[in-house]
Amino acid sequence: MVTRRPHATRAVTRPVIHLIPHTHWDREWYLPRSAFQARLPAIVSDVLDQLEADESLRFLLDGQTVVAEDYLDLCPDERARVERLALTGRLQLGPWYVLADQMMPSGEALIRNLLTGTASARALGADPMPVAYAPDAFGHPQAVPTIAVEFGLSHAVVWRGIDVPWGTMGEDLFRWRAPDGATVLAYHLPRAGYEVGMGLSARRETLDREWPAIRTELLGRAVCRHVALFVGADHHAMRSDLAALREALATADPGCDFRISSLMEFFRAVDREAPTAPVCRGELRRSPGYAWALQGVHGTRLPIKRANAALELLLERDVEPLVALAPGVAEHRTDLVHAAWRLVLQNQFHDSLAGTVSDGAFREITGRFARARDLACRAASDAIDELVGHDPDAPAVDPEHVVLVWNPAARPRSAVVVTDLVTSGRPIPVGPPASNLLPEEPPVSPPAGIALEDGQGEILGVQVLHRRSIPVRSDGRCRYPRLTEAAVTRIAFRAESLPGCALSRFRLVEREARLDGNGVQYHGGRLANRFVSLAVETDGSFTLADCVRKRTYRRLLAVRHESDMGDAYTVHRPASGPRLVRVGAVERRGEGGPVLGWLRARYGLRRREEEIGVTLLASLDRDSPVVRWTVTLDNGARDHRVLADLPLGLPGTLLVGTAFGSLERGAEPKVFSAEALERPGPTAPAHRYVARAAEDGGLAVFQAGSFEYEWSGEGNLSLTLLRAIGQLSRPDLPERPGHAAWPTTIPEAQCLGRHDVHIAVMPIGDDAREPGRLQELWEDAIVSPWGRCLEIAPREHGACPSPFGSITLEGPGLAFSTCKPAASGEGVVLRCWNEADTVVDGAWSFERPVRRATLCRADERPVESLTVEDAGRRIAFAAAARAVVTIVVA
Asked: CA-based Rg of the chain, rounded to a whole angstrom?
């Protein structure tokens, strides 16, 4: 929302037009990364030549340091030239590592982006440009000013997302205010965006035709006499006639001064004027009368977005805390974490994460995610071995099996844990037969009766979910992998009072142990515990009864299809066309259990020769109202969208999760001006959850990260499960006439094959509106404790030696964000945010004492020392309303 002053013709005395030379570099788009990288040597080398030849020139290398990295990867001998020009500020680098799509990454990922970009710029001898530059993102979350100020960035540049009333030009500068009050002075690019000045000719006769219209728009929206004129375009070299263009403009328009400036020189000139600019609050996501916002991207190539969400969670909640808390300094583990993050961040480039890329680029993105997961899992595995004191190379004499359970929340929790018990068996020889003369051993069998013993000697019963025999490889540092035919038993058990951000140890014992309570009952096609009951209807949808609030929700997860003849940017639903219809009866099965129960619906959808297999597997544990669904789509159809409906019957606004917070949204607007450049659809992005809470009930829907939903405002919620399209850009869509990209066929965006979508649903009451409550429920539903089985020697049964032991965040409304190694390599970073609109007194508590604590910005620069209380076991702090709080402990 923009609070505007009354619009009037502005009388600007002697305007100063700042020509800002730049390029916008799409690292991958309609071509794969390698094709764009191959263009960098000629373009960047020419920029360096021009800057060295004329000291009046400046050049903005697109606000992302990955461009310089990609260039130096091919031209390492040019590093000294880049460093020399970056040091002077005439070659502007950073502050971002990549220009991300800002609506889809987590808040922590946006911080990692700036941390990596800052480090990358400084490695080239330069301070990063202090501007939150985002000229081409598909919208901006409300937390961007907060994150910017935490990195010392006082200015920003945006284009999409601000709706300017038709017939006005709006203002070119505004003060963008986040919910915590953090504010940046932002420049709003004109309607032509960052390409506004690229087509200007230095020839006077041509300039006389081109300049007046641009001048009218720029000065008509100027808040002060300093005005920015961006001169550059996608993948363009630096103009060789910039000095001539400046002279030609000065001659053609003697009423203005013209300068070639860096972006910061422009903002410094603006700051000296101290202009009165309108205030903008909240997210920037719709601009139909001004620029394409292209919100259809939130459903395009959903496998990319789901892989990104999974990697963000893995790194933020598992790998970084385990590496940070493992005893001693292990640079190789932090190096693995940094390398994994860089790969994830490269995939968060706005076209990459949006999925608006060629099929070749899509395959590269998929490969980077796979590499990032391998690096992250290795770092986590090594950290766990260090915490336990386990040596994977040492032969285990009379080994015992333990289950290590990691709680990725900063609070004690009780939860159902599902894990695999692996019992090693007969070795499987690898290599020439002569070198593998192993004694015959009987095949391994799982123990008949099993239970777990916790650290207090209490025996916990387990529910066996299934058993299988598979080859299992055990890796080591100083030996070949051991391959054995192992018995794998998947079990579920209830773990009580798991400490926060810590490992708990359970020993496998061979004995029978009864489970208390009624567990999860399955009877008459209905699955139930004491909180909810769940049934599959004949159409494959589910009926959920809230036993606490006595409210029933029908036709949940009803899978719906609609044709989509749009492109990667925009959805187009034709009014008519062949529909997918269900074929045959719905197969319904279920099973209860003392710990866990499940319910499954399976059916097919067909349209002519195209078919989709649909399987919905719901699970329910004994002590939770959360229902977790895995929706499996075997897609054999093209040009369509698949949605899951959740008719709540509760009209009003939704609570929607965003980066470092939440907001309320109603239904998306359906009526736009006839002159609008774009007619957006009813979809919107969310992060982590959407929820409708009322006194008499409600539902919360949770996913791992970014997802797309539709909300009618009348109580009907839909989730996008799959979007299948085959064109990068179409020119004739009624929702957006004109190409949004170079026309390219992208058949792999039809998303044929299997897709698993994980969704959790939970009945809630009006208390879910309390600050921080939905974030806590999301943690319980999605960020569950998990276990790892190890075969270890008895000598390794000591306590897990984390330097701090367990970690607990205290304070109503405070949400845990991260526990990570400090960028400097000294200390551990703890971060939370305040969901409340008031100041909250918070504290971090530790099982073992810490020596010191420092309040820092998100860039980890110190602000002030904090007092360590309770013999080093407690650090108190005050969290301002809606603020992000970062503390480094050692």
From this structure: 29
The strand ranges marked E within 499-595 are 502-509, 521-523, 526-528, 532-536, 542-546, 551-556, 558-563, 581-591
Q: For 670-716, how does the pLDDT look when each residue is reduced to its tens digit (9 = 90+)? A: 766 666 788 888 999 999 999 999 988 999 999 999 999 999 989 99
Q: Which two tokens stand for residue 339?
A: 């390398």
| Domains of the chain, residue spans | 2-293, 400-433+442-519+785-796, 525-782, 803-890
Establish how many alpha carbons lie within 13 A of residue 699's alpha carbon, considering only the half-sphere containing its beta carbon: 28
HSE-up (13 A, CA, CB side) for residue 143: 29
What are phi and psi for residue 74, nearest 5 degrees?
Answer: -90, -30
What CATH number was assigned to the domain covering residues 400-433+442-519+785-796? 2.60.40.2210
- Residue labelled with tokens 């897990």: 800
Query: Is residue 299 within 8 Å of 165, Cβ to Cβ?
Result: no
Cβ partners under 8 Å of residue 870, min gap 6: 845
Domains 400-433+442-519+785-796 and 803-890 share a fold: yes
Q: Which two tokens stand for residue 59?
A: 């050049």
pLDDT exceeds cutoff 70 at 444: no
CATH entry 2.60.40 includes domain 803-890: yes
Residue 668 CA to residue 103 CA, distance in Å, equals: 16
Of 882, 658, 853, 818, nearest in space to 111 by CA: 818
Class of domain 525-782: mainly beta
Helix or strand run (H / E) with residue 93: none
